[in-house]
């Protein structure tokens, strides 16, 4: 098994040397609950010494079972398909734009990234179909298994949570809530680094992130700073993130892992013989986002145990799709254009002010993403 080294790296990888946030992006921290501890489990592909981080921080690492690991091999095939797709002319990629914007199809945010969001097999470009179908099945089965184990840690049967994910573990003709995204983040030169995905928390159940080079950073609530998780382990490996839906379904025993993506600068490259600057480098990333299947009923009475405690906000007579819409409508989308992002941010701020003026419940306005 490959070894992940969290605390034996040179600066800035050590937790003790985390960058302290210089703005208002530092996430709020949920106070510890006075409840029985989670039941201990052996979570697959997560090293024993890293398993506690998933419930404590909302993130952890995924370590492959060697280079023949099916998750690793399928991700490599998907990276190859993604690089070939992004190298195609814009005129070709434009054909995969949809009316759903960043929720499905090809999108581009100038100065940050371009990406394609896959939701159904029929709307998947031909060059992606085989690699995406294989990866979706393997990643979907893994996250579904992991979700069942997290249910057991709460004193619930596995199916109490996997009922939300079972319909979503294969890429087929029917659209589900779950999505697969392949990103190409722009390289950056001239400064120390550039944030190409703002600080946010995912909206769904669990997210699996695999990058071909470092860029993902997670927030360490103990050190109160951003931790460059992908620089902290020997590659290849991945990262797992808790989303907001799982937070609500677990009564905050699992809380979302705040994260961002940063484009690091490499040592200055030499210009070629013609004097032209070197070609821009990219970071490619695969993000598999497991969301709760929209038609599945939500009843927190059936999710309550001595470990979860009584739900602060009981939910009955709703479905997972209602839950997702409530979460999404309280946050702005970091994967839309900067102009639309700012409009959404302003509208949420105005809504918050109106509710405060009327004496109603406060709406939380903070960074979010459309990749729950």
Automatic annotation (TrEMBL):
Q: Where is this region: Disordered?
A: 343-372
The annotated regions of Basic and acidic residues compositional bias extend over 343-353
Q: Which Pfam families match?
A: 2OG-FeII_Oxy
Family (UniProt): Belongs to the iron/ascorbate-dependent oxidoreductase family.
Superkingdom of this entry's organism?
Eukaryota
InterPro entries given in the database record? IPNS-like_FE2OG_OXY, IPNS-like_sf, Iron_ascorbate_oxido_reductase
Task: List each copy of the Isopenicillin N synthase-like Fe(2+) 2OG dioxygenase domain by range.
Answer: 183-290
Write the protein's name: Isopenicillin N synthase-like Fe(2+) 2OG dioxygenase domain-containing protein
């Amino acid at each position: 098994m490959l070894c992940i080294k969290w605390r034996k790296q040179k600066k800035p990888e050590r937790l003790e040397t985390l960058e302290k946030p210089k703005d208002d992006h530092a996430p709020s921290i949920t106070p510890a609950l006075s409840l029985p501890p989670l039941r201990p489990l052996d979570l697959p592909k997560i090293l024993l010494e890293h398993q506690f981080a998933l419930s404590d921080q909302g993130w952890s690492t995924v370590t492959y079972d060697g280079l023949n690991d099916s998750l690793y091999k399928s991700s490599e095939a998907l990276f190859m398909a993604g690089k070939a797709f992004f190298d195609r002319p814009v005129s070709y990629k434009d054909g995969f734009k949809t009316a759903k914007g960043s929720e499905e199809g090809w999108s581009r945010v100038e100065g940050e990234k371009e990406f394609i969001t896959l939701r159904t097999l029929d709307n998947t470009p031909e060059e992606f179909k085989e690699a995406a179908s294989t990866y979706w099945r393997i990643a979907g089965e893994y996250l579904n298994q992991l979700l069942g184990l997290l249910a057991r840690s709460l004193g619930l049967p596995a199916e109490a949570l996997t009922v939300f994910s079972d319909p979503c573990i294969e890429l087929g003709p029917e659209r589900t809530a779950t999505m697969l995204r392949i990103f190409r983040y722009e390289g950056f030169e001239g400064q120390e680094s550039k944030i190409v995905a703002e600080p946010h928390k995912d909206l769904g159940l669990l997210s699996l992130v695999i990058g071909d080079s470092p860029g993902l950073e997670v927030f360490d609530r103990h050190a109160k700073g951003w931790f460059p998780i992908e620089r902290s382990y020997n590659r290849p490996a991945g990262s797992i993130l808790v989303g907001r839906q799982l937070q609500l379904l677990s009564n905050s025993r699992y809380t979302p892992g705040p994260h961002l993506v940063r484009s690091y600068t490499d040592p200055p490259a030499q210009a070629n013989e013609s004097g032209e600057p070197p070609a821009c480098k990219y970071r490619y990333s695969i993000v598999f986002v497991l969301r709760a299947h929209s038609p599945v009923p939500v009843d927190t009475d059936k999710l309550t145990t001595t470990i979860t405690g009584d739900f602060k906000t009981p939910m009955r007579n709703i479905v997972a799709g209602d839950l997702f819409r409530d979460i999404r409508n309280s946050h702005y989308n970091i994967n839309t254009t900067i102009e639309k992002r700012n409009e959404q941010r302003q509208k949420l701020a105005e809504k918050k002010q109106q509710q405060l003026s009327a004496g109603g419940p406060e709406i939380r306005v903070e960074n979010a993403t459309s990749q729950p």
